Amino acid sequence: MSSLLPSSSSPMNTNMNSGGGGTLQRSSVNNAAADALRKKMQQLRDELELVKDDLERSRKDFEKERHARELAESEVSQLTRKLHSFEEQLERTEERLIQTANKLEEASHTADERERTRKMLENQLNLGSDRTEILEIQLKEARALATESDKKYDEVARKLLIQENELEKAEDRAKRSEM
């Protein structure tokens, strides 16, 4: 920076000093210009530092935002994979639900058929029980009739035997009387 400002030993300054009274004026103008130039350079340096600081902050903000974006993209990717996995799991679960519902419907139909069969067999059993009761009554009546018939048969057989005996006796008497 000092190379930009004329030094007191430079040829320009020596020419000014040799001129007399105007030299002092020129020297103070030069000093004022140099001071103004130094101030301006300092301002530019300060502005440059501020711009560098802003640039560094902006770079850091950019890095943070880039990192946050990468994290967000990674999270979105993970969530997308999870969502896809959940969708597949939901699809498999829905398929199993449909299969289970079909099996339940088949089981319900089978149970209904078995219930109808049970009722039919129960009705047949009730009819069979009624028939059995009727047959038992008829059997008792038949036994009673058979017992009655046996008694009548025995009575008739006894009477027949008595009459056969009487017939034999009558034949014997008739033979004896013929003789």
From TrEMBL:
Top-level taxon of origin: Eukaryota
UniProt keyword annotation of Repeat present: yes
InterPro entries attached to this UniProt entry: Tropomyosin (IPR000533)
Keyword Coiled coil among record annotations: yes
The entry's keywords: Coiled coil, Repeat
Biased composition (Low complexity): 1-17
Segments of this protein annotated with the region Disordered: 1-38
One Pfam family this sequence matches: Tropomyosin
Function text: Tropomyosin, in association with the troponin complex, plays a central role in the calcium dependent regulation of muscle contraction.
Family recorded in the similarity comment: Belongs to the tropomyosin family.
Protein name (Swiss-Prot/TrEMBL): Tropomyosin
